[in-house]
Amino acid sequence: MQNSYAVSKGSRRSIPKKRKIPWYQVCLNLLFVIVVILIMLPLVLVLSVSFSDEKSIFVNGYAFIPEKLSLMAYSYMWQDRFSILHAYGVTIMATVIGSAIGLLMTAMYAYPISRRDFPLRNVFSFYVFITILFGGGLVPWYLVYTNLLNVKDSILALILPGLLMNGFNILVMRTFFQGIPSSLMESATIDGAGEFRVWWQIVMPLSLPVLATIGLFNTLAYWNDWFNSMIFISDAKWFSLQYVMQKTLMDIQFLSQQSGTGNASALLATTPTETMRMAMAIIGVGPIVLAYPFFQRYLVKGLTIGAVKG
After folding, report:
1. Which of 72, 81, 176, 248 is 20 to 30 A from 240 via CA?
2. What is the residue-wise DSSP string for 269-304?
3. What pTM value is reported for the model?
4. What's phi and psi for 276, nearest 5 deg?
5. What is the pLDDT of residue 306?
6. Per-chain mean pLDDT for the chain
7. Is residue 306 within 8 Å of 210, Cβ to Cβ?
8. CB-count exposure of residue 298 (10 Å: 0-12, 13-18, 19+)
9. Which of 22, 273, 305 is CA-nearest to residue 175?
10. Which residue has the higher pLDDT, 80 or 268?
């Protein structure tokens, strides 16, 4: 009996006490919660307005809870569903191909200039740095892609101009590569591996955080791009999703400016202008919002490691 009591008493003593959370950590967590709420509020407001009635928006303004639910904006967009779905396909194709090729080219450029035994590393690094500070101008940029590369009215017009490689992304990836221990690469070289095999089988698997970070940057750049469609595309079958949305907004703005005329006024009166703008924003941002959580942990790790190690 005494032994069992001693065992139970000892077991009670072995239970660790709960550690108190420091007050500054509690304040920091509360601050992050408030920041997340402030970031989410505009998205919630846009979603709420897209499901609101147009007349209630004009009378009472925006509200987080719709006073009167309405699917009029989405029904108007459903009438143009084929062009929107086609634009979705074009944007997804340009985003996937451009992000993959851009990520591969960025890694292939960043790896040599991260090696201290590469004699021209300073020259190529300076070239990348110059492209961040200076540009050739809009007219030479347009002439190179239209007259020299002839990418007009093709999928290449949505991939090549200005989005495939970025100097900032190259420098971030170079900094990450410099943090990989050189002993690993030296060991592989001694075992007979060439530079390409070292880069592909050793450096790249260890660089998943920075690859996911740069891949997310490329994906956002391609998905949100509408300027290349406006400049290089005149055939409607190659319009990107963002340009279709931008074109619709411009048409609505044109109708608003011509509201004095009879036909434009009648058409504008039956078109849910405000709610349709919000519905287009929801349709355009939806896939990126759903994909972002899968990149988040790699994004944070890649940015912190690439920024600290030099």
Report:
1. 72
2. HTS-HHHHHHHHHHHHHHHHHHHHHHHHHHHHHHHH
3. 0.78
4. -70, -35
5. 45
6. 81
7. yes
8. middle
9. 305
10. 80
Contact 194, 108 (CB under 8 A): no
Q: Hey, CA dihedral for 191, 195, 197, 200, is it positive or negative?
A: positive
Q: What is the pLDDT of residues 226-242, one digit of tens each?
A: 899 999 998 888 998 88
pLDDT tens digits, residue range 127-145?
998 988 888 788 888 998 9
Beta bridge partners of 52: 69
Which of 166, 167, 137, 162 has its CA nearest to residue 151? 162
* Residues 106 and 207: beta-carbon distance below 8 Å: no
Helix (H/G/I), strand (E/B), else coil: 69: strand
Joined tokens for residue 59 = 């009378």
- For the record, the structure tokens of 119 come out as 């004699």
- Separation CA 114–CA 125 (nearest Å): 9
Q: Rounded to the nearest 10 degrees, what angle do helices 167-178 and 121-133 cross at?
A: 140
List Cα–Cα distances, 89 to 43, 155, 246, in angstroms: 24, 11, 17
- What is the identity of the amino acid at 186? E
Residues 242-259 have pLDDT tens digits of 888 888 777 776 666 665
